[in-house]
Input
Amino acid sequence: MDKSVNPDNQERTIGWRVRMALGILLLLAIAVVSVTNSLLTDRFTESTRNRAELRLALYSGNLLSELRQNAIVPQLLARDAELIGALNSADYTASTRRLISFVEEIGAASLMLLDIDGRTVAATDRNRLGSSHRAEPYFVDAIRSNATIFTVAERETGGYGFFYSRRVQSGSDVLGVIAVEVDLQKFGRAWAGISDAVIVTDSTGTIILTTEPRWRGRTEEEALVRHTPQNAIQRAIQATADWTALPPDAYLQGEAVMRLETRIPFRGWRMASFTTYASVRERVNGVLALEIMGFAILLALSFYALSRRTALRMALFQRESAELRALNVALQREIAERKRVQETLAVAEQTLEQSSKLAALGEMSAAVSHELNQPLAAMKTYLAGARLLLRRNRQEEALSSFGRIDDLIERMGGITRQLKSYARKGQEAFSPVDMGDALASALSMMEPQLRQRHVQITRLVPETPVRVMGDRLRIEQVMVNLLRNAIDATKSERLPKVDILLSAGETATLTVRDNGPGIEDLDQLFEPFYTTKQAGDGVGLGLAISSGIVNDLGGRLTARNGQAGGAVFEMQLPILGSEHGTQAAE
Output
């Protein structure tokens, strides 16, 4: 009896194998799509976060640069002779024109000159002439203080105005107030075209600058009220849109967003940005679509092999395959276009970052050139001495001079390194500094001038080290500036003398006292470009730079006239460690 294969059994076997192959293909597709989704989501989310962090750093840097640029304006205008004369004579016919001539160069939103009663007597916005600002904080606080005042004023029409103000004096008489309005709203308008949402909050957490006008005056929690979709269909659509994103940092109007925050080193301000995951979802979904399409093509080919018996089904699958290929080309074209746009954006962001750094370097160039003059002068003196020693065949002493020149070159290198790190100001890593060693180094640098002038130096230093947390190079800069001022102050004395006292108590205190004529104007002593020296001897930046360095280190720099004559400068820095009690100098 012949055995034959049952066609039905054979067909069922083939069908079972086909179904198993299709099931395996489906499981493989699910596994590949899940793994790809997880990996690409992490990668693209990190890329989006890095770009958002870069934009946030640029935004905060530009905002801080604008504030610092306008901070010096009231101080300069308060000394303008024509404005002071107008307030004295009550003749303001030319004052408004003068303010208008300044505003374009300064870049401020507006300038106002207020008399002693708070009435606007001159303004770049002529609609403000005659208006009263007597109750405004920028007028009241400026009248009471002899410094420049910064004020955030809420407008009646909504939003906030940002003002720098300073009182105008003639001698000891207060004549009025000069107010400079800083245009920070332009940043909000510029950010709105690039970022999804940006806010700036003050020290109380109130939003004072934002790309969303309706958020002004609210806290971040009040602004970011989550609105849940109303029905099941909307919730399903929202869940589908968010499934490729990492756990969100916050929700903005019901949409998951990435939140980044940074501190602005100005009056406790903070900046936060909110970036949607839309770009991440688009890029991930594009890749997933390609994978799904690939598996779909495999699936279509499988069905095509099964249905080749009929021409109709064959034509149908061929048509579907052609459509999928067209979709593939369209998706690839779209992905290529998106990559090109992203590369263009990256180049633009790098260009903007470089421009911001160059602007910051320009602001610091005057200060750095001032600090390089002292080492250059010392190097010139040491070179002259070394040349004379070599002529006299005193090579050992000449080599010592060259060693000191090498130290000065290293110091100049440190000053230029400060210029490179200027964009990261406020984030330097401090280390313990021995004030005694720093003082010895500063005196070594000043040695050529001390020899030339025959200045008697009296130095009292504790036996135990006096340590502070800071940057030794910047501390030495302050010491050199104080010693140089003391030496210059004793030029007219027959027996010049400088006393240096270092003590340690609750603070580390360095006192420098000279027997010169003293200080005439203590109020303007630490202001930039104020100097009593002859032209060519100084530009008036030394004490201003020194005061800024000491403030950055958490200390203070003061000056007074001594009881027996001469000037007395004191630099106080927080002492390292928890010990208290004064160490007496031996």
The CA atoms of residues 248 and 256 lie 5 Å apart. The two ends are 126 Å apart (CA to CA). The first helix runs from residue 7 to 71. The chain has a mean pLDDT of 78.
